[in-house]
Amino acid sequence: MITPMTGPVGPKNSAGTWTKSLENVRQREVIVRNIDRMHEHSRRGLWRILSFLVITAGAMQARDFDLFAAVPAGVAEMLGAPPPTILVHSILAVSTICAVILIPARATAEPGRGYSRLQFWLSVAFYPLYAMGNTLRLFLPLVFAAGLAVLILEHLTIRSLSARAIREERERLGKAV
User: Fold this and answer.
1) What is the pLDDT of residue 177?
2) In this structure, is residue 2 part of a structural domain?
3) Total of domains in the chain
């Protein structure tokens, strides 16, 4: 006689074997799902880097665009003068240094926390800041280098931590056989 979940019904000793086998199968499935999730998490940084490169290409095409000239006079008067370049440089430097310091904390945080997306958008936000001062043409390589460096360091950190965790899960998978 065959039951749907436990397999054949036999002597009392074999029922324990089937239950243990079923637990092993479930444990293996959980481990395989964890490995797949870690692989997915480790590749997210590549998508952010690619998105940053695409946005940079767009900024490169618009580097001569004067953002304040396109705004109506009333709105420009309400906004005031564009930020001084030295202030934008200072904010970029502080943001980059803080991002590099916080990379290990963001890498070990839960995948859905959004820290990486925040850093991505902070890196991208400097393009319009420099465009407001009509200095994007001059400082685009600086913004590009700072943003790309932070995103690559973050990706490499997450990738190495994920590789270590995947290796540990594979060892658990081997023991669960």
Assistant:
1) 61
2) no
3) 1
Q: What is the pTM for the complete model shown?
A: 0.74
Q: Is 125 exposed, middle or buried (0-12, 13-18, 19+ CB in 10 A)?
A: middle
Among 112, 107, 96, 113, CA closest to 148: 96
Domain that holds residue 32: 11-175
Structure tokens of 121? 């958008």
Could you tell me which of 26, 32, 28, 30 has the C-alpha nearest to residue 166?
32
For residue 4, tell me if it sits in a domain: no
- Amino acid at residue number 112: G
For residue 70, CA distances in Å to 100, 112, 125, 132 come to 35, 37, 18, 10
| AA letter at 31 | I
Mean pLDDT by 10 residues, the chain (177 residues): 44 54 79 83 84 94 79 84 90 93 76 67 89 88 94 88 85 75
